[in-house]
Amino acid sequence: RNENWNYAIFSLDKTHRPGVNQAECLACHKPLDNVSYTFTLKQLAGAGDAMEVGVLSEVTLEGEHETTLVRFVSSQYFVALRVPREASTGRARFQLRVAAPDIAREL
């Protein structure tokens, strides 16, 4: 656990997958515990206002090995989905958009 972070994995049918080994998630997140992605995402959301594009719903970070899709599900929460370069980001974006309202209701 990183302070108040919890980790979860959801299936394509939007159900929470129990029994996830959070140690695997923590192994990637813990080295970055001093980085506040929430603060950065709030700045990005503010940039949407400054650019007069309206409220941002999604941010895409495309890297050499993977793409990370970040969808805002409320003013306090976001969901990030890491997609390997060889996978379809369009399908991942669609699934994330469809699942976001249900995730927001759960929070």
Strand order of the largest sheet: 1-2-3
Number of separate strands? 3
State the helicity in percent bands: 25-40%
Shape: globular
- Average pLDDT level: 78
Counted by DSSP, the helix tally is 3
Gyration radius, rounded: 14 Å
For the sheet with most strands, the description reads: 3 strands, antiparallel
β-strand amount: 15-25%
Low-confidence stretches: none
Which structural class fits the helix and strand makeup?
alpha+beta
- What's the SSE pattern? HHEEEH
Report the end-to-end length measured between terminal Cα atoms.
Answer: 18 Å
Secondary structure topology:
Elements: H1 22-29, H2 37-50, E1 58-62, E2 66-72, E3 78-84, H3 89-106
Antiparallel strand pairs: 1-2, 2-3
